[in-house]
Structures are given as C-alpha cells and as structure tokens.
Amino acid sequence: MNKLISKSRIIAGTMSWGSWGKNLNENEIADLIAKFCQAGITAFDHADIYGGYTTELEFGKAFKKLSVNRSNVEFITKCGIMYPCNKNNFEVKHYDYSAKNIRKSIENSLNNLNTEYIDIFLLHRPSPLMQVEEIGDIISKLKEEKKIISFGVSNFSENQINLLEKTTNIDWNQIELSITNNSPFTNGLIDYLNQKNIGIMAWSPLGDFFKTKSKSNMALLKLLEVLNKKYSSTNDQLLLSWLMKHPSKIFPVIGTTNYERISLAASSENIELEITDWFLMYEKINGKRVP
Ligand SMILES: NC(=O)c1ccc[n+]([C@@H]2O[C@H](COP(=O)([O-])OP(=O)(O)OC[C@H]3O[C@@H](n4cnc5c(N)ncnc54)[C@H](OP(=O)(O)O)[C@@H]3O)[C@@H](O)[C@H]2O)c1
C-alpha cells in the first residue's frame, strides 16, 4: 500500500466547504487550507461534483494564493457521477466511466486544482455499466502521462473490486465507515481490503453520532464522558481514535471546517485507546455484548 499519504493520517474532506455547505469565500478557503497544513493534515479529498462542480476550482484558486509547496500536499479527487445541476443538462443522475469521460474529468480536475497531477484518483461509485477493459486502459494511459500517481475506487464492494482488478491495480477504497456505521468490520469488506493491501479511507468517520440522538448514540455518549476524563480527550477524538486503532490502518476523511476540531482531529492519532475501551465503545454502539 500506499503509494502516498506519507504525511497525514487524517484527510481533509472538502465536500461542504463551498455551496454544498459552508459557502466559504476564497480567503476563508485559503485560511482553512493553511490551518489544515499547520495541523499536519496535508491530504485534501475532493470530487468533481462537490458544490455542483464548483468546489475544486474555488479550492484551486485559494491554494494558489498560499505559499504552500504542491509537493508538500496530496490531492485526492473522484470522477464519474453525472449530477444534474445548473452546470449541465443531464436528464438523470447517472455514472459515466467511459474513457472519454474519465479523461475529460481528470483534465477538468487538473485545471481546477491548478496542478499537473492528482495524487489519488478515485472512481466515485460503482456503475452497473462500467466496462473494466476501457477503465483499465485509460487509467494506465493517465498514469503513463503522470496525471495520476495512484488509482482507487470509492464505495466498491469486494466483487466490484475483483472485477475491476482484472484490468488495473486498485490502491484505495474510500468507504463509509465509522463506529456508528461499522458493518464493514463484520461483513468481510475490511478484512478483504486488508488482505489485498488496499488502503482504506473512511468517509463520514463520525457517522451519525453528532446528528442523531439514537438510544445507542446516547449510550455511547455516556461512556465517552467517562473515557474523556481518562484520555483527556473529546468525543470526536475518541471516535476517530477508535477507527485508527484498527490494524488495517484506516485514514479518516473528516468534514469539519472548525479550527479547534481540526487541531483535535490531528492529535487524535496520538490517543492510545486500550483494547477494553475499544470493545466497550463497540458494545455501546451495537447495543449488545460481543459474543
Ligand atoms: N466517497 C464518498 O462517496 C463520500 C461521501 C460523503 C463524504 N465523502 C468525503 O468525506 C468527507 C467527510 O464527510 P462528513 O462531512 O460526513 O464527515 P464527518 O467528519 O463524519 O462529519 C462532519 C460533520 O460533523 C460535525 N462535527 C464534527 N465534530 C463535531 C462535534 N464535536 N460536535 C458537533 N458536530 C461535529 C461537523 O460540523 P462542523 O463543521 O461544525 O465541525 C460536520 O458537519 C467529505 O468532506 C468528503 O470529502 C466522501
């Protein structure tokens, strides 16, 4: 594995920086990028569609204003979701992994991000119509042209990975994974990715913990109040350290734009959660004892 993300274990997710969330202006985005870099978080997760195809460009303009060296950061982006919005006239949301569309998408992302290469390029979601020979062929060309350093997928199952691996190597799978959404730990996916040495990025690594007052979240909250005293931590730090304790070396993709939470997330890697505390948290969220 892992043909990159040498520096940062936590990845900064940009999905909500623009019109899909915080509506940050160029200066605010530049300040935010600088804040992440200061905290030691140097990998930035994008997708062409974020902000209805606008956030990559906003990020690129803001990054240009900073004196951060491109080789000191990593850019991840994704392609393939054709999302109807005011930038196009798609009749329906769909996926397009034709060579023509993958090339168009990478060229757009390179222009938007004002860079010569993408560190990690991902197919955003599996498509029932994907032609793996065509994908394998265009990905090797883009690697030869040094426009892509590393290739991966997002939201792919074990079978979909096997299918695509007929024609290309897969270095990463970015999946929805958190303590509140922990089925990949038991449905075989994490073990499979681990066995294949495919890097795992966890999107929405805090799950619905801060969004839903479910019985299990409330039970976990009660436990976290106790554990925070023991580890001098915060709730979000413990949720991240729970994921990072897993031996498959999970890379959480965090969505916060809050400066204090960014610093806390960066230092969550240093929390050494004891095994029993890991299982106590697991028990609380699952609402039952481990068998
Ligand atoms: N590959 C895919 O299909 C896919 C899908 C979805 C997302 N993603 C990627 O994953 C990234 C992260 O996703 P996410 O935003 O769902 O991640 P997340 O880090 O699990 O959630 C972030 C949200 O939690 C809130 N939060 C964090 N700490 C909190 C606290 N202590 N108290 C209250 N609220 C708190 C944040 O609010 P504040 O901002 O106010 O802190 C923010 O709204 C995205 O930006 C994107 O890059 C990928």
Structure description:
This protein has an eight-stranded parallel beta barrel, surrounded by four helices. Strands 4-5 form a two-stranded antiparallel ribbon. The chain is globular. It has 291 residues and is α/β, with parallel strands linked by helices. 41% of the residues lie in helices and 15% in strands. Helix 8 packs antiparallel against helix 11 (275-286). It contains eleven helices and ten strands. It has helices spanning 26-38, 50-53, 55-65, 99-113, 132-144, 158-164, 189-195, 215-231, 235-244, 259-267, 275-286, and strands spanning 11-13, 43-45, 74-79, 81-82, 94-95, 118-123, 148-154, 172-176, 199-203, 250-254. The mean pLDDT is 96. Residues 13-16, 45, 154-155, 174, 203-206, 210, 235-236, 253-258, 261 line the site of NADP nicotinamide-adenine-dinucleotide phosphate.
Structure characteristics:
globular, binds NADP nicotinamide-adenine-dinucleotide phosphate, alpha/beta, single chain, two-stranded antiparallel ribbon, 8-stranded parallel beta barrel, 11 helices, TIM Barrel, 291 residues
What is the strand and helix layout of this fold?
Elements: E1 11-13, H1 26-38, E2 43-45, H2 50-53, H3 55-65, E3 74-79, E4 81-82, E5 94-95, H4 99-113, E6 118-123, H5 132-144, E7 148-154, H6 158-164, E8 172-176, H7 189-195, E9 199-203, H8 215-231, H9 235-244, E10 250-254, H10 259-267, H11 275-286
Parallel strand pairs: 1-2, 1-10, 2-3, 3-6, 6-7, 7-8, 8-9, 9-10
Antiparallel strand pairs: 4-5
Helix pairs in contact: 1-3, 3-4, 8-11
